[in-house]
């Protein structure tokens, strides 16, 4: 099994769903970030519980060779969309995306059909192939 599938099994055992893992550098510190979701929302207690499950695994199978800090959290209301599952999870939410052709789109995710994301824009429905998306994220209008 891969590290990500092991982490997925662990967080699912406590009622969470693995959204994403990433390695980021912030303020001269390397962070191994594990983002989790739940239909009931993600509490701080659940993040602590997940951290306690994942940490021993990373002691045995570290995600990188250098020093890092583990961070378990919700991906937040404004989050990057990197996979088709991310778009499926975001149905009904507002997204903005940039295509490989540099076209900028904003709208609400209506559905995901195989490898195509359908969004409702001010001009109507727009369908974009997942492989044609350079960058996408959800956004919230305050």
Question: What do these coordinates show?
Answer:
There is one protein chain. The chain has 142 residues and is of the alpha+beta class. The chain folds into 2 domains: 3-73, RimP-like superfamily, N-terminal (GMP Synthetase, Chain A, domain 3, 2-Layer Sandwich), CATH 3.30.300; 84-138, Roll (SH3 type barrels). It is 23% helix and 41% strand. It has 3 helices and 8 strands. The strands form 2 sheets. It has a 5-stranded antiparallel β-sheet. Strand 5 (104-113) and strand 6 form a beta hairpin. The longest helix is centred in the middle third of the chain and has 17 residues, at 44-60. The relative contact order is 0.15. The mean pLDDT is 94.
Key features of this structure:
alpha+beta; SH3 type barrels; single chain; 3 helices; 8 strands; 23% helix; 5-stranded antiparallel sheet; 2 domains; GMP Synthetase, Chain A, domain 3; 3-stranded mixed sheet; 142 residues
Fold topology:
Layout: H1 3-12, E1 17-26, E2 29-37, H2 44-60, E3 69-73, H3 84-89, E4 94-99, E5 104-113, E6 116-121, E7 124-129, E8 133-138
Parallel strand pairs: 2-3
Antiparallel strand pairs: 1-2, 4-5, 4-8, 5-6, 6-7
Helix pairs in contact: 1-2
């Amino acid at each position: 099994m891969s590290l990500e599938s092991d982490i997925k099994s662990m967080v699912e055992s406590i009622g969470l769903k693995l959204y994403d893992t990433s390695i980021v550098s912030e303020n001269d510190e390397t962070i191994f970030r594990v983002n989790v979701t739940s239909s009931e929302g993600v509490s701080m207690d659940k993040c602590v519980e997940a951290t306690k499950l994942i940490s021993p695994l990373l002691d045995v199978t570290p995600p990188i060779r250098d020093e890092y800090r583990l961070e378990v959290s919700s991906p937040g209301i404004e989050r990057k969309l990197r996979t088709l599952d991310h778009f499926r999870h975001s149905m009904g939410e507002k997204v903005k995306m940039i295509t490989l052709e540099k076209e900028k789109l904003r709208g609400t995710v209506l559905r995901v059909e195989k490898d195509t994301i359908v969004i409702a824009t001010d001009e109507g429905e727009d369908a974009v192939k997942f492989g044609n998306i350079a960058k996408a994220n959800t956004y919230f209008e305050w």
